[in-house]
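Entry for the shared binder. Reason: the reviewer on the internal report wants the predicted structure included alongside the sequence.
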Amino acid sequence: MPGPVGPWAWAFQTEAYARAVFLGRFSTPESEIEEQVAARMERQQILSRENPPELYVLMDEWVLKRPIGSRKIMYDQLRHLATVARRRRVTVQIVPFDTACTDGLSSSFVIAELEDAPITVSVDSAGEGEVSAERGVVSLILDRYDKLRTEAYRAGESLEMIEEAAELWKPET
């Protein structure tokens, strides 16, 4: 369960943060970085719809501490994350770095529930991604999600943590 670099990263990243993430990946050709950043920013519009999807996100606490880009990029990123976390239909919860539950730490995942469709999961690891509606896979991911959520801070506490972390990254003037 990495930070906002999983399959749902598009919803939470500023342009500068996304660019820094892509620049840090050796597998992303430089010629594609701006295209991928633009696509990620465009997908954020889904949260501005009149009826946006519900989004529940669990993030590892290290996301607040791991330097990506500059202090300004981190400050702006965490302020943006706090803004998105305040949106209606968005719930962000931080999973403590010292949690004993390691089930979700090996990959990031998304659980999609749509009307008139089976529950589908998307699981991303460092090497590959998989989308499945197979009952056993879905059950395993739902179980991991539930276990992680029981370890996570409540949404209000998580928002406070994000805001406090942003202040620690605030660039000196």
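Summary line for the report: The beta strands are 55-60, 90-95, 108-112, 120-124, 129-132.
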